[in-house]
Amino acid sequence: MLIPLRHESMQGRRWPVITIGLIVLNILFFLLTHEKIEEQSQQEGLVKVHVLILAAMHPELKMPADLQQFVERTKTSQPKVWKYLQNPSREAADSWDAGIRMRDDSSDFQSEMDSLASQFEQMEQTSILDQYAFIPGQQKPISYLTANFLHGGWLHLIGNMWFLWLAGFILEDTWVGSSIPLSICLPVHLR
């Protein structure tokens, strides 16, 4: 991949204040949301893994439709992982997994699945990414705007802001230049 360093002509008629403003806003939103997004992603990943482990070990358990859909989607898209999770002699993934294997009462399993389903639902409602990122299957009008200010990490932010600077600088100068009255832009013989 080639990374452009600059345009041939990085000179404009004025400072690209809109582009600079957008870059500052993106950095500000990133600093405000990055830590929370990382924390939510880790928690959500842990809950999802626990749901999959419990559903693979005990397919008779009942769960809400959205959670069932997640389990079915994983089962069909990751059959090797699903088969591994069903194996009773596999190594425990974490202390929760080891603890759940020691239980014998089937009502304990259902209450654990209910607890995980509640956590899953709560995370979907409070997740910054679920609320403000652009998800093609779950489009929200606000996400068309807010997704522009969410970034997956420092490299994602730096790469996006670099290309915004390169493209925005020229585009802003062109758009501001196009607001000049037409009579000034026309050659003398066409006025």
Summarize the structure.
The protein contains 9 helices and no strands.
**What share of residues is helical?**
55-70%
Class from helix and strand fractions: mainly alpha
Q: Would you identify the regions where 5 or more consecutive residues have pLDDT less than 50?
A: 182-191
**Strands, count:** 0
Order of helices and strands: HHHHHHHHH
Overall form: elongated
Rg, rounded, reads 26 Å
* N-end to C-end Cα span: 47 Å
Q: Sheet bearing the most strands, described?
A: none
* Mean pLDDT over the full residue set: 85
Strand content: under 5%
Ordered list of secondary-structure elements with their pairings:
Elements: H1 17-57, H2 65-77, H3 79-86, H4 95-102, H5 106-126, H6 128-132, H7 143-146, H8 154-177, H9 182-185
Helix pairs in contact: 1-3, 1-5, 1-8
